[in-house]
Amino acid sequence: MKLWGGRFTKESDLLTEDFNASVAVDGRMYRQDIAGSIAHAAMLARQGIIDEEEKDKIVAGLQEILAELDQGRLEFTVAAEDVHMNIETFLIARIGEVGKKLHTARSRNDQVALDVRLYLKDEAWIIRGLILGLQETLLNLAREHTETIMPGYTHMQKAQPITLAHHLLAYFEMLRRDVERLEDGVKRANAMPLGSGALAGTGFNLDREFVKEQLELDIITRNSLDAVSDRDFALEFCSFASILMMHLSRFSEELILWSSEEFGFIELDDAYTTGSSIMPQKKNPDLAELVRGKTGRVYGDLIALLTLMKALPLAYNKDMQEDKEALFDAMDTVKKCLMVYEPMLRTARFRTEKMLEAARGGFTNATDLADYLAARGLPFRDAHAVVGRAVLHCIQAGKVLEEISLQEYREFSPLIEADIYNYLDIKACVQRRSVPGGPSSLAVNRALEEAFSWLGSMHEKTSW
Fold it and tell me: Superfamily assignment of 5-104 in CATH?
């Protein structure tokens, strides 16, 4: 007989059991479920709802179950439906009638709401650490390449020269925002819903604040209807995960392009690439491509969860059992991608000469020529037109701007002097851009100092 089977006259059909069960998905939350149950039992005893001896038996039984689950000595069954009822069934079988008292003043609705929040917090902390690890690698690489010149692009056309360090720091900033988004979302997950019951609270005199403190949560939920039906925190996590994956996908796209023969900016380590089954010469950036591909998968998890919740009336509906598949898949995918990304990037070899060579082509110093004229009093729009004509001349003559003679330059503008060649040097173009946030060595080193300081402060935190 099911734990809820009192009003039923026959057993569930096997198809119903299989279709209704969620333990294959939610079984991973057993540690959080047991932690919540131990806190709940302690509170029941504190409030005189059960006695201390009963509480001790329940807690001891739950701790034994936890140890055996950790050791793989217990198996969940579909017949018990979900992680909550599996653990309760184990407990009753182990300690007898006392185990049946654990569910006093509690529903699976507020129980699962708690478990998912606790699980999300635990997984989010792991993911936070993985992001910080990737950021540390970015900073270490940037510190090595403050003088490595490369072309910056807009519209996938060479635009202006920058440094590799500056480029890597752009991704550091994206990941910084991801960490901030994750931390902000966890604030709203850090609420304690036990005591909400199925939807209308309970008539028992519970101490919800005590349970909150036992579970190291920040607040108790303020409305029982909302508490059991809220999955905003899961949506926020999937939104964070989607934005994070978008950033990794953008970086992956560049690594894929840079590792091509046409660019040749980078060689990924053999340990993080694969070969072809038919073309023996191939070295494919499959891991970067998979990260790019898995981004769509995480987007799908967000859309699935949004669609699941979009028309549900208050309070809990069985539809919400499907929330965990999307949430857990997003968590698992993000973790796997971050775990492979850091060593893939750390072991990559950057071809600095190829980058410098590429930066010297494509007229990446054209804006500097316009700035040179503007600094000598020519309105920038007029300077822009002058440089445009000079670039056209170079294209027709098969030259770069540095190869135009001074006499030719003066035909474009009498403001141009002999110092123009030093001004157009690619390295000088980069070093001139020393405004905060710019690519010069001075600006990048200042940015690195701040970034390392921020990262250190993040590492100092030991918990949410």
Answer: Fumarase/aspartase (N-terminal domain) (1.10.275.10)
Judge whether 105 and 206 are in contact, CB under 8 Å. yes
Q: How far apart are CA 212 and CA 204, in angstroms?
A: 17
**What is the three-class DSSP state of 185?**
helix
**Residue of 155, 277, 457, 463 with catalytic role:** 155
**Of 260, 276, 453, 459, catalytic:** 276
User: For 334-392, how does the pLDDT look when each residue is reduced to its tens digit (9 = 90+)?
Assistant: 999 999 999 999 999 999 999 999 999 999 999 999 999 999 999 999 999 999 999 99
Q: Which residues belong to CATH 1.10.275.10 in the chain?
A: 5-104
Give CATH 1.10.40.30 domain extents, the chain: 358-445
For domain 109-156+164-199+218-355, the CATH superfamily is Fumarase/aspartase (Central domain) (1.20.200.10)
Residue given tokens 């919800």 in the structure block = 208
Please, which contacts does 182-188 make with residues 24 or more away whose CB atoms are closer than 8 Å?
Answer: 182/124, 182/127, 182/128, 182/131, 182/237, 182/240, 183/128, 183/464, 185/124, 185/233, 185/236, 185/237, 185/239, 185/240, 186/120, 186/121, 186/124, 186/464, 187/218, 188/232, 188/233, 188/236
Residue whose token pair is 């809220």: 230
pLDDT exceeds 60 at position 4: no
CB atoms within 10 A of CB 169: 24
* Per-position DSSP letters for 216-266, written without gaps between them: T-SEE-S-HHHHHH--HHHHHHHHHHHHHHHHHHHHHHHHHHHTSTTT--E
Q: Is 242 marked active-site? A: no
Q: Range(s) for CATH 1.20.200.10 in the chain?
A: 109-156+164-199+218-355
Is the distance from CB of 36 to CB of 109 less than 8 angstroms?
no
Q: Are 60 and 142 in contact (CB under 8 A)?
A: no
Catalytic annotation present for 247: no
Angle between helices 286-309 and 232-258 (to 10 degrees): 160
Give residue-wise pLDDT tens across range 284-318.
999 999 999 999 999 999 999 999 999 999 999 99
Prediction pTM value: 0.94
